[in-house]
Every structure is written in structure tokens, then in C-alpha cells.
């Protein structure tokens, strides 16, 4: 692909990361759906499950599909599924159709994440993959941040929160058209015949296994902090449930800002050294967080940890893609499957929290951070040996 073509091709690809963030509408939608249908927490919690279940189920099939029809066409399929998912609640609004819509959203998002990341690797130079993936994660975070605001505006000004789905459908259609017009070919014309067995065989590679656990742990840290920091605030400062949501907002905002800064720094700084510094800061900040007992210090330390962890996913993913470029479709599928596995950390934290308190539950995340710090030194050592 010519340099001029790459420059224009990266724009619709990056816009795809913005669409990727639409999956987080499940958070605000759950509250509205519960109110609209008078559902119990048990029933309404089926909605997030309908989204994230598919990361485990469809990651490997998405990689297999990508090997057959190519990355560009696979991204197009994912965007088409997302459009259908967004239109469904606008025409059929009952609990069953909502579950189906979010199931389709989860399937579309899984396929999008599996295919979009290696698509970046196919159109930019290896040295810029981490930086561009980080920029994509920033755009995804911005999209996630805007979701509740759009839903609130739709409810306030248009009288119907569901009109957020119309906005998302139109935006996804724009992304699909831009992709089909702006990306005419893939950077690498390789055919990868993938099966479940060939994808799972990647676990025999210890390096890939190490990075897979890294993805699992960083997602576990994200989910764990978002769900546990508010509880920590309630336990240590006596805040109300509604006020304690500040903790999650601070962490999410810090990750968004960190991804934006990281997109520029990672274009100039070696990603292994960058990750080492970030993990050192994260571990120190996290240990202090476990000891802090005031709102001010807990808030400051949550922001520090959020900033330090904001680029880890992109760094690990880029190293995985560059390890075996000829099998990047399969590697992408395996790494995205690790996203669903990250949810395993939260139940373990719950067991510890119920038995010993929120600090004990959060201590499990410290082990995850220490593992990620170990990975950063392994990455540097491996680079010296290559």
C-alpha cells in the first residue's frame, strides 16, 4: 500500500475504534430498561451478560472468518451487525428485543475488536503500531464517555432515551461507508486458514501465553477498580452509594486522558520502558491506595493508577501482533478472548471482599499489577536478545 493510501486508510480505521466504544452503552441502558419495564436486578443483569458473553464465544470464529474474507470485509460485517443491533430497539421495544439487540451488539463488537486491531498493524509501520492502537483506545474511551451524555440529551430534549440508538446507527453507517470507500486493500495479502485447534495451539508459545495473561489481568484490573473503588469509598469515607460513583468516574476519566497522552509518548519512547515506568507508578500508587482513608487521597491515587494503566492493553496487544505477523489474525482472536476472561478476576475479588473487606478484595489486583510489571521487564529482555 502506498504511503499516501496509508495516510487516508488509517482515518476510517480509527473511526472504527470510536464505533467500538458504542458497546459501553450497555451501562446506561441497563438503568433505563430496568425503569421502563420494572425489572428486578437479576433480570436486568442479563443485559450486560448478553454483551460480554460473546467475547468468549465469537473471538476465535471471528479470527477464522477474517482468514477467509479478509480484515476489511470482516470489519464491514461487524459494522453491519452493529447497525441492525442499534435499529432493533427503535422498532421493537420489549425486554426480549432488548436482549436480542445487545446480543447482536456484543457479537458485532467482538468481531470488530478482533479484526480492527490487526488491520492497524497491516497499514502502519511496526514502530507505530503501539501508538496508533493507543490512539484508537483513546477514541473508544471518548465514545464510551459520550454515551451517557447522548442518552441524557435524547431523554431531555427529544423525550425518548432510545433515540441514542438512532444516533449510533447513523454513525455506524457512516463508518461502514467510509471504510468501504476509504480502504481499498489490505497492507498484507496473506491467507490464514484458521481453526479452533490452530488458534489454541498458540498457547504452546510461552510468549503468547504470557501476553494473553497480561490482557486478562489488565482487563481484570479495569473491571475490578470500576466496581470496587465506589465500595472502598463507602467503606472508608462513609459516602452514599450515589456519591461513591465518583470513584469510577475518576478512574475512567484518567484512563481517557492517559490514552490520549500515551498516543503521543509511545511514538517517541520505547514501549517496554514506558510500560516499566507506568507499572512502577501503578504499583506504588496502588499500595498507597490500599492504605489511604480520606476522600482526597483515594481520589488522587485512583487517578494516578488510572493514568498508569491506560496504555497497557495497547502495548501488550501490539507486542502480540508483532510476535508472529503471519498469524496476526489468530493472535488477535486469542487476545480478544482474554477480554472476556478478565471478568474472572471480579468474582474472586468478591469472595475476598465478603470475607475480609474491600481492601482484601483490591489486594488481588496488586498481584495482577506485579505480574504486568514482570511482563514489562520480560519484554525488554526479549528485545535485547532478538
TrEMBL record:
Keyword tags: Cell membrane, Membrane, Transmembrane, Transmembrane helix
Presence of keyword Transferase: no
GO cellular component: plasma membrane
Entries under Pfam families matching the protein: MFS_1 (PF07690)
Annotated InterPro entries: MFS, MFS_dom, MFS_trans_sf, MFS_TsgA-like
Domain Major facilitator superfamily (MFS) profile: 5-383
Transmembrane region(s): 9-30, 42-62, 74-92, 98-117, 138-158, 164-183, 207-229, 249-267, 274-292, 298-321, 333-353, 359-377
Signal peptide from the UniProt entry: none
Gene Ontology MF annotations: transmembrane transporter activity
Compartments it resides in: Cell inner membrane
Topology with respect to the bilayer: Multi-pass membrane protein
UniProt cross-references to Gene3D superfamilies, sorted A to Z: MFS general substrate transporter like domains
The name this protein goes by in its record: MFS transporter
